[in-house]
């Protein structure tokens, strides 16, 4: 309709088309983030007994909450726990996913379609259900595997990592496998002509070609690990060994909904977001040369 | 240029109007100021509760009161429900009525989320014991809720297995400890009971029995005494038994614990009057084998109990129909018809004295082993003493779970965990700015 008025017809169109995206971005990303920052800078101050009207008001406290969040030893202990858990999950899950993808792509495997679905299936099980299923298998009096206390202090990290590996391997396997299928078969023929064995092709042709996909799955997995919440929260009632602040995100949940301190929760969320950014982008920066330098 | 901006503005306006459709109800909020004046025409109230079959109870009310229509919104119980209500109140869309556990009521009051209904409830005060009434007034002149049910604590025990192991029902906690040793010695797989690091409400009840006062109000200041002598005594008693290995340390309400109750490897449970429902669903095999007795005492000859759980009906501070909401809450919790429905449909142990006296037929689970269940419960209930809950029970209860989990792992003394609860609670109150008496 701008065109009929004879104004600047070509320059208004892009804005119009962009509007939905901008509005969605503002409503569902910028505003919530802004509100989180707003909350993180404030706190309620109570006077006297804190009962009755007007005894409670919100005040601006500057960086106090953020400072307290960063200085909280429990948060960093949580990071350490998650780091150990994450290292375990990343290595085992991505290792298995790569192994399965290569096996499925190799010429030798029978029942490839069935195996692919079987490995992928756990990903379709919601995290809470998976944790409950495994939780029941872990409980000493219910487990079919005797002799090990899966929920003891020394074993609980492995037990939780196991749930994550079980649930996540299939998805990562599928991403890697799909990428493998996209590699032109002629490369393999060339390698075979040069006398390469299947193993050599896997190690020296397929894996190098897969590097961008491996990096992608690693970044996704790092982010998922930083945000680990479902497994420990679901398993917590079963055991004495998982505290309410086991992972950083659990601390946010506890602050916001158990102890009713939205302000600290907001501040801790910002710290977690910062750490996620640093870790993911840090990882990308380290591997950027390898991955995208080659593929471009 | 102008047309361009106009186009953008128009597009934005359309989108915002579409996106914010939810706020179209705002004009309705206008008469909010006329809070307690008699409303004209039928009033509709939203009631958040997790009591079973409350919809059936409300249907009876709605039938008889076409002017005040109540809609039940079923909630998950416990701490989650409290968190949800506080969040809703903060967001300005709280329900008119809410089921409030006694320990969470102070945090609702502190958040200014529930209304003071002292004027409307003066008539029903005599229906309730002074102890229960104190839980909804916090010892002030205000009244923040009407008591619904209460949870006096007693000892549930396996009658048949007590006989088998040759132990008498313990009258004191010292006898309880002795019985625990005998049972565990006779069969290392069997425990007299379990210490649960996941149930702060249970521990609070045992502390109340011992005479603890975790919070109290003196003048214009809060006094926090979680690490008082009584509580420390209770903690160290259980800590000693756990460290000796004669009491289990499984949390309650886990599949593991259910199994132990069901297969007779756990012989007793200090619990509240609502225990039959739990036993019936979690230990179906024990039907007709469990009996109740008063909690063991700290000193021979004493007769005290505490409270675990129990809840009240509160009216939210933002309700536009306060008078109607109070009318419904009063009917539900004090009218013979309301109480009768509560008992029969929602299986609660009513807070009202008249309601308690009217209980006759024992729970089916106890029909054979304890036919006088309600009479026993009433006697025990009369001996229960509570304490005022503070404005940050969520913090304290969470500290309980983490501190006792840690004590169980590190095999450290339980009294230290009580100290952690005290420190965490005081630090949180100080951070918020509450006035504390020292």
TrEMBL record, chain A:
Membrane disposition: Multi-pass membrane protein
Entry keyword annotation includes Ribonucleoprotein: no
Domain ABC transmembrane type-1 as annotated: residue spans: 79-283
Entry keyword Cell cycle: no
Signal peptide positions on this chain: none
CDD domains: TM_PBP2
Subcellular location(s) per record: Cell membrane
TM region positions: 12-35, 82-105, 117-139, 159-177, 209-229, 262-287
PROSITE patterns: ABC_TM1
Gene3D superfamilies found in the cross-reference section: MetI-like (1.10.3720.10)
Keywords: Cell membrane, Membrane, Transmembrane, Transmembrane helix, Transport
CC per GO annotation: plasma membrane
GO biological process, one term: transmembrane transport
Similarity comment text for this entry: Belongs to the binding-protein-dependent transport system permease family.
Protein known as: ABC transporter permease
Species this chain originates from: Acrocarpospora corrugata
From TrEMBL, chain B:
Matching InterPro entries: Bact_solute-bd_prot1, SBP
Cell membrane as UniProt keyword: yes
Pfam families per UniProt: SBP_bac_1
Keywords tagged on the record: Cell membrane, Lipoprotein, Membrane, Palmitate, Signal
Signal sequence coordinates: 1-24
Entry annotated with the keyword Ribonucleoprotein: no
SUPFAM superfamilies named among the record's database cross-references: Periplasmic binding protein-like II
Stored PROSITE patterns: PROKAR_LIPOPROTEIN (PS51257)
Protein name as catalogued: Sugar ABC transporter substrate-binding protein
């Amino acid at each position: 309709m701008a065109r009929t008025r004879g104004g600047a017809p070509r320059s208004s169109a892009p804005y119009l088309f962009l509007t939905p995206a901008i509005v969605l971005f503002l409503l569902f990303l910028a505003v919530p983030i802004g509100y989180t920052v707003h909350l993180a800078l404030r706190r309620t101050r109570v006077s006297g007994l804190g009962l009755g009207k007007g005894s409670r008001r919100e005040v601006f406290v500057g960086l106090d909450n953020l400072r307290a969040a960063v200085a909280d030893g429990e948060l960093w202990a949580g990071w350490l726990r998650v780091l150990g858990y994450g290292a375990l999950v990343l290595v085992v899950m991505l290792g298995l996913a790569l192994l399965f993808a290569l096996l499925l792509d190799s010429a030798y495997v029978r029942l490839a379609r069935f195996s692919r679905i079987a490995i992928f299936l756990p990903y379709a099980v919601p995290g809470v259900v998976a944790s409950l299923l495994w939780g029941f298998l872990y409980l000493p009096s219910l487990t079919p595997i005797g002799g090990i206390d899966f929920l003891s202090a020394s074993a609980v990290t492995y037990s939780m990592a196991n749930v994550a590996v079980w649930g996540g391997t299939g998805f990562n396997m599928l991403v890697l496998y799909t990428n493998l299928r996209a590699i032109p078969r002629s490369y393999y023929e060339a390698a075979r002509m040069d006398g390469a064995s299947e193993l050599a092709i896997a190690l020296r042709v397929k894996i190098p070609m897969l590097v961008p996909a491996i990096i992608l799955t690693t970044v996704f997995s790092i982010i998922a690990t930083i945000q680990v919440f479902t497994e420990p929260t679901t398993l917590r009632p079963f055991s004495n060994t998982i505290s309410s602040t086991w992972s950083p995100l659990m601390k946010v949940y506890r602050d916001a909904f158990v102890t009713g301190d939205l302000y600290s929760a907001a501040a801790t969320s910002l710290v977690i977001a910062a750490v996620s950014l640093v870790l993911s982008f840090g990882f990308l920066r380290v591997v950027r040369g390898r991955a995208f330098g080659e593929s471009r | 240029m102008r047309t361009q901006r106009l186009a953008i503005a128009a597009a934005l306006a359309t989108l915002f109007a579409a996106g914010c459709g939810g706020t179209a109800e705002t004009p309705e909020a206008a008469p909010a100021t006329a809070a307690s004046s008699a409303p004209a025409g039928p009033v509709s109230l939203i009631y958040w509760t997790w009591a079973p079959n409350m919809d059936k109870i409300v249907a009876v009310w709605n039938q008889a009161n076409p002017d005040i229509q109540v809609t039940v919104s079923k909630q998950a119980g416990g701490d989650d429900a409290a968190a949800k209500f506080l969040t809703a109140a903060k967001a300005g869309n709280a329900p008119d009525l809410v089921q409030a556990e006694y320990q969470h009521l102070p945090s609702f009051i502190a958040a200014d989320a529930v209304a003071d209904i002292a004027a409307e409830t003066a008539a029903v005060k005599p229906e309730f014991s002074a102890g229960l009434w104190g839980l909804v007034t916090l010892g002030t002149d205000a009244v923040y809720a009407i008591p619904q049910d209460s949870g006096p604590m007693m000892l549930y025990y396996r009658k048949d297995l007590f006989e088998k192991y040759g132990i008498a029902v313990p009258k004191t906690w010292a006898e309880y400890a002795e019985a625990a040793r005998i049972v565990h010695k006779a069969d290392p797989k069997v425990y007299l009971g379990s210490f649960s690091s996941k149930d702060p409400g249970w521990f609070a009840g045992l502390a109340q029995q011992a005479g603890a006062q975790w919070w109290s109000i003196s003048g214009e200041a809060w006094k926090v005494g979680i690490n008082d002598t009584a509580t420390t005594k209770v903690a160290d008693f259980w800590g000693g038994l756990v460290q000796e290995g004669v009491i289990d340390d499984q949390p309650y309400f886990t599949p593991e614990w259910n199994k132990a109750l069901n297969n007779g490897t756990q012989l007793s449970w200090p619990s509240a009057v609502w225990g039959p429902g739990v036993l019936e669903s979690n230990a179906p095999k024990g039907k007709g084998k469990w009996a109740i007795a008063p909690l063991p005492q700290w000193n021979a000859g004493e007769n005290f109990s505490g409270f675990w759980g129990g809840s009240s009906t509160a009216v939210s501070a933002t309700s536009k129909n306060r008078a109607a909401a109070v009318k419904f809450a009063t009917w539900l919790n004090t009218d013979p018809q309301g109480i009768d429905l509560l008992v029969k449909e929602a299986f609660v142990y009513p807070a009202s004295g008249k309601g308690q006296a009217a209980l006759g037929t024992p729970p089916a689970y106890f029909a054979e082993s304890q036919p006088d269940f309600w009479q026993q419960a009433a006697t025990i209930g009369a001996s229960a003493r509570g304490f005022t809950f503070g404005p940050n029970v969520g913090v304290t209860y969470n500290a309980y779970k983490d501190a006792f989990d840690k004590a169980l792992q590190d095999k450290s003394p339980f009294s230290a965990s009580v100290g952690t609860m005290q420190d965490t609670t005081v630090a949180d109150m100080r951070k918020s700015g509450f006035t504390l008496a020292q």
